[in-house]
Amino acid sequence: MKDKQIKIYLASPRGFCAGVDRAIEIVKKSLEKYGSPVYVRHEIVHNKHVVESLMKIGAIFVEELHEIKDKSRPVIFSAHGVPKSVPVQADHLKVDYIDATCPLVSKVHREAENLNKKGDHILLIGHRNHPEVIGTMGQIDDGGIDLIENVEDARNYRNKTSKELAYVTQTTLSVDDTREIIAELKKKFPKIKEPKKDDICYATTNRQSAVKKIANFCDMFFVIGSRNSSNSVRLVEVAKKSGCENSFLIHSESEIPFDKIDNCKTIGISSGASAPEILVEEFINNLKQKYHIKIENVEVIKEDVTFKIPGKLN
To answer: Which of 43, 111, 132, 184 is catalytic?
Structure first.
């Protein structure tokens, strides 16, 4: 099939966002400063390639703090954020910690706290059991925050408190899905308070916009990312809704579906915010082994956001 020509529409921006860059840098700087090992609570970002590369240089990943064997070593909290109980537990265990929570997730935490202090009952639009959602819900005492996962949840929600309602959202959701859920909440609760600024992060919005721009031109669409990466899974959904039903996630255990690609003239490629660019390059190189490839880079916006790392690591 090497004589077959395929045009690739390459979405830009794609891949690492500023929060992911910062989190990975925090692990590397911690290893430089404290030596090996350092512990990381939960995957620092949702990507197997990233996690394995950090393990090779001395990071040990745990799900809970009690798994830390050497309490004299520092622990890093992942980019997704943690409930308030986790730093308290770290203090109790006398474990030094470094917080790599994405600043945009921290912003949502502060919003939730401030709304709670003002006496509002909070609705969190997000996906159950995602670590970011667990972290955000864990900023508020039991019962002060309820989870809304979809339009049906919004439609069926009953405010069992006498408090006014306010909402915040997970940062990595589909922009369009969130809009529908918020519209339903506002229809049902016209006085519900909304964030001063949209909680969905700039990187999520930009990556979804880039996918929307090209999906309709593509016979197939591929998102490079992990199955447990919310923003990667959302990109696949966005591609499908934007006109390319044959959209797939390419994760660490995926086999490239060459039999389907054989029938394509155009394919789209993007990657989730926690997927390193090397995985995109590998995917394209695999295609080049079989086809004549022409690449068109489609950029919707230039990103120049950076986040500072904690001062204690400088």
So the answer is: 132
